[in-house]
Fold:
Amino acid sequence: ELLFDLDTEAVIRRAWDDLRDAGIA
Structure:
């Protein structure tokens, strides 16, 4: 089981938003 802190979650969300905006995801 992987536990992520709030900072890590924020980084993941930001990266996902960047990919989505680029039309990759």
The chain is about 70% helix and 0% strand. Helices lie at 6-22. The chain has one domain: 1-25.
